[in-house]
Amino acid sequence: MEADDPHPDDLKLLFDVIPVGKVDRPPFRLSGGEKQRAAVASVFSFDPEVLLLNEPLGAVDAQYRERILGLLDDHDGTVLVFTPSLDLIPKVAKRVVLVGRNGSIAADGTVRDVLTDRSLLESQGLRPPATVRLFEVIVDPDVIPLTIPAARRYLSCERM
């Protein structure tokens, strides 16, 4: 294999996020979601120590959303995600640094501490994630499920 040849793992990654029939298309012939998936695949192919991602799932459909979340979960390095989607945060983060309306740091803490603090979020013009809004009136903030799979597990245990 030549130095410039793609590594087999890189090709697998590319084909995993872009349908085989579209890999040879010029970028202007790809949809927004396909462009975004190609960009994410190209970044992962470098196996960087630090990933800086701005709304990595913004234009991605549900099928590829799970694949990209899997890539993020498998990544060994640091991942910094910039997103207005509070529902995404529990899936990709252990720590949240919330940038306030004025550009200063409004909060820095665990996912649970930040996403269950309704007054903090509202002061920044944000709503808690859907699972937090559903559970905050019926359970203690320390046990609120932060993701839909966690909510399913919680509910299945509660009914027994």
From TrEMBL:
Organism this protein belongs to: Halalkalicoccus paucihalophilus
Source domain of life: Archaea
Record's bilayer topology term: Peripheral membrane protein
Classification lineage: Archaea, Methanobacteriati, Methanobacteriota, Stenosarchaea group, Halobacteria
A single GO molecular function term of this UniProt record: ATP binding
Main location class: membrane
This protein's UniProt keywords: ATP-binding, Membrane, Nucleotide-binding, Transport
GO cellular component: ATP-binding cassette (ABC) transporter complex
Protein name: Putative ABC transporter ATP-binding protein
